[in-house]
């Protein structure tokens, strides 16, 4: 038999490397040394034809060639936003001309408000859509737990009371149902675009109108280098969140997602419906609402994808491609918070 062609050898080599890294990840998940090895996995390259056509309603023509070391577009032609690939001044000017109101919904229940909410809101005032009209919309159990934070001109903070759930898993899964109802109320009537964010993080850099689009997904900082077959999608075929092997583009983080009110109503309805379908059958997806969010974005491709710079985990350590993190995960303390 003739020896394999050079391309075949190359494929075999990379498959062996990825298999080794995948096995290491399963057994040594989260160890700093493994995270550094993971950075060696190539992210892919945006085709030059697609690169020249990347535009955005807020940033105009993008500059993907400014970040040659990372993937700057999706297979369906949506931009992946990295620091340096856009002009922030153009984005701010466009948002002001459109006279936009941007909503930010925060779901904070149990012990999360006392531990995280004040810092989240204080840093949001410094970095989230600075100079824009913003409506924070806090969903929490005791409205009195919302701290007093000095708000700038054109920024408001209404509070919505939500019911307490028995298990932390139920809290996580109830979020989509609560957000869907909220988007049919005040945020849906007054905001043009809405972001939904977890409270256990804080802003560390400018999070501006460059992030706005009809639908926005966030690359998960722990998984953005991984090939699709290693990503933690829901594999139980009985779940509404199930994705077959070979399906899935990227793994998205449920800590940050956004878009127009209509797009988010569709997303939250899909996820809430899938969660209810699973519960009626005694099922629970591996990563709860995040599993259903990933299924939604597989079926309905996001118009814009945010790089891990927009929501970064300091536990991973420094990465050359992470130039300016916008959001940083806070220490979790799950044992205390979920009891």
Automatic annotation (TrEMBL):
Protein family per UniProt: Belongs to the glycosyltransferase 6 family.
Keyword list, A-Z: Glycosyltransferase, Manganese, Membrane, Metal-binding, Signal-anchor, Transferase, Transmembrane, Transmembrane helix
An annotated GO BP: carbohydrate metabolic process
Cofactor: Mn(2+)
Annotated Pfam families: Glyco_transf_6
Transmembrane regions: 12-31
Residues involved in UDP-N-acetyl-alpha-D-galactosamine binding: 107-109, 112, 198-200
Keyword Amino-acid biosynthesis recorded: no
Residue sites binding Mn(2+) per the record: 198, 200
Active site feature: 290
This protein's name: Alpha 1,3-galactosyltransferase 2
Presence of keyword Cell cycle: no
Source species of the chain: Pan troglodytes (Chimpanzee)
InterPro entries reported in the protein's UniProt record: Glyco_trans_6, Nucleotide-diphossugar_trans
Gene3D superfamilies (alphabetical): Spore Coat Polysaccharide Biosynthesis Protein SpsA, Chain A (3.90.550.10)
Cellular compartments annotated: Membrane
GO molecular function, one term: hexosyltransferase activity
Primary location group: membrane
